[in-house]
Amino acid sequence: MVFIHSPAWLAKAALGAACLTVGVHNLNAQADPIAKPLAQESRILGILPNHRTVPSSMWDVPPMSSSEKWRLGTAESFDPFTFLVAGALAGVGQADRTFPSWGQGSKGFSKRYGAALADQISRDYFTEAIFPVLLHEDPRYFRMEHGSFLRRMGYALGRIAVTRTDAGSSRLNYSEFLGSAAAAGLANVYIPSDDRTVGNTVEKFGTQVATDALLNVLKEFWPDVKSKLFHGSGGAGPQSANLAR
Question: Where exactly are the structural domains of the chain?
Fold first, then answer.
């Protein structure tokens, strides 16, 4: 009830309700195909979602349908880790007094938490569902898996700029850049008016793209790290590629 007099927070509530409606619809529509693959090897370090990694042995997987892309965006957006990260970011923002007009205490924290959660959900839907559907791009990460460390590192970082299309060709990753830009721009609806600057929007866009690039590196090397640490298999199982199948 603390936000009811704020148009920005009403807009945020509407965004959250829309995302939740889409999420519930997609999860209920095809629960089994998404749940079974994720129940196996779908997390890095046991907590970080790894829903969309394809091992090199399965690069010939069929393209994702539009509904599958929506389900992928839903799985990422409403994963428990998303809510955990939002809480951590809200805590850091509270300590740093980010958006000082929001104040401190439970009211300030709840606003920062809502903003952090909206940031993540909007980015996931824009980069993994909305733009991939509109532009016919594949939001999954295709592991190189073999080769030198530098070659694989360059590949992982480069996949932030290059993606696979539904037709199987490669091109500029429009979904990543347009999706991150859209999410960064949308944040101006619900952050304090004094902070709605071009500089802050560009910074948020850059942070989102850089975060996704680092996540690519984790997805590329996590099976190798896991193999070294736990003396298990370093390969990624088919469940990562089969998320939406």
Answer: 7-241
